[in-house]
Amino acid sequence: MAYDHAFQAKVMQALDKGLATALGPVFQNKVYSMVAPSNAVFPILVYQQQDLYGDRNDFLNKNGWSGLMTFRCIDTTLSGARNKLVEASQALQTVTLSGYLFQITLRAPQQFPVERTSTTNYYTSAVLADVEVYKDED
Question: Cα–Cα distance between 55 and 49 in angstroms, integer?
Answer without folding.
Answer: 11
